[in-house]
């Protein structure tokens, strides 16, 4: 039911000319679920990605693909080959995603990149900055989220886009995701537009 809601939600975003959406479908914590549950989740995720692409949206994997089984990675890769890069809406599909893991992966990639250039430890340390880490995140090249919507009455971040959300606005609602309505989205956007964003100032 939650996966089915995604396509409906994306159509609302398209109508409102929102160009970039990130949906979290599977966390790194979820990967510890029983194998039979994961098999079912992988099938739902693969079907949903195909439906998003069939709807004409650009899909971008956000997460650690290496944490997923090989057949799941291959299926996602095949689906992404069909995606439309210049589509009206880009959808980041967060699979095998954890905010801490993303930051660790970004730093590791940056350090390996610098080491390959023959730099020593001190030079590598000097190369680590907010900007250089940002360039190695899963969402590299994309703007940070303006608004993060958390459903189901939860009042926690759960590790979602930890680095990118430093200046994001949050909107919490009691509605469970499968029951999320267009009016709920409009309320979130109306509330967002009324806020004075100071970006940490």
Written account of the structure:
This protein is of the alpha/beta class. The protein has one domain: Decaprenyl diphosphate synthase-like (Undecaprenyl pyrophosphate synthetase). 44% of the residues lie in helices and 14% in strands. It is built from seven helices and five strands, in the order αβαβαβαααββα. The chain has a three-stranded parallel beta sheet with strand order 1-3-2, with helices on both faces. Strands 4-5 form a two-stranded parallel sheet. The radius of gyration is 18 Å and the shape is globular.
Question: Keyphrases for this structure?
Answer:
Undecaprenyl pyrophosphate synthetase; 14% strand; 44% helix; alpha/beta; 201 residues; two-stranded parallel ribbon; single chain; 7 helices; three-stranded parallel β-sheet
């Amino acid at each position: 039911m939650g996966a089915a809601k995604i396509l409906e939600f994306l159509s609302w975003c398209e109508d409102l000319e929102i160009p970039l959406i990130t949906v979290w479908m599977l966390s790194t914590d979820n990967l510890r679920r029983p194998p039979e549950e994961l098999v079912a989740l992988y099938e739902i995720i693969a079907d949903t990605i195909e439906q998003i692409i069939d709807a004409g949206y650009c899909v971008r994997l956000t997460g650690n693909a290496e944490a997923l089984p090989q057949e799941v990675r291959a299926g996602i890769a095949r689906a992404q080959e069909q995606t439309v890069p210049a589509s009206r809406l880009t959808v980041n599909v967060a699979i095998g995603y954890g905010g801490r893991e993303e930051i660790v992966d970004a730093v590791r990639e940056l350090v390996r990149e610098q080491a390959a250039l023959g730099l020593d430890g001190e030079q590598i340390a000097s190369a680590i900055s907010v900007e250089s880490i940002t360039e190695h995140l899963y969402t590299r090249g994309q703007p940070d989220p303006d608004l993060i919507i958390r459903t189901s009455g939860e009042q926690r971040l759960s590790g979602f886009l930890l680095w990118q959300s430093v200046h994001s606005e949050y909107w919490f609602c009691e509605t469970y995701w499968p029951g999320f309505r267009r009016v709920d989205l409009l309320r979130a956007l109306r509330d967002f537009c009324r806020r004075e964003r100071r970006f940490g100032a």
